[in-house]
Design goal:
Elements: E1 4-7, E2 10-18, E3 25-30, E4 33-37, H1 46-59, E5 66-70, E6 76-82, H2 86-93
Parallel strand pairs: 2-4
Antiparallel strand pairs: 1-2, 2-6, 3-4, 5-6
Amino acid sequence: MSWIKATKDGVVLALHIQPGAKKTEIVGLHGEALKIRLAAPPVDGKANDCLLAFLADRLGVAGSRLELLAGANSRAKRVKVGGGDTAIITARLGIERA
């Protein structure tokens, strides 16, 4: 899958974010990224904070294991899950493996 890549120290997720939605949820694939709607406005880093909290909860990991690598001011974001496993992450996010 192109939206999830294993690295030597974790997993990197390519995400397409839609801030300001009615509720926070995973929508599905959007091109080469996983689309996530966030119920937070794209103001003062609130959407980024909401995204990281949502991912930590869904993945069952501590927030300290997540790192926003790119896209702090963009809808296209890359998030690293330290020590993650692609099979476990796709299962916890509810995404079918191809």
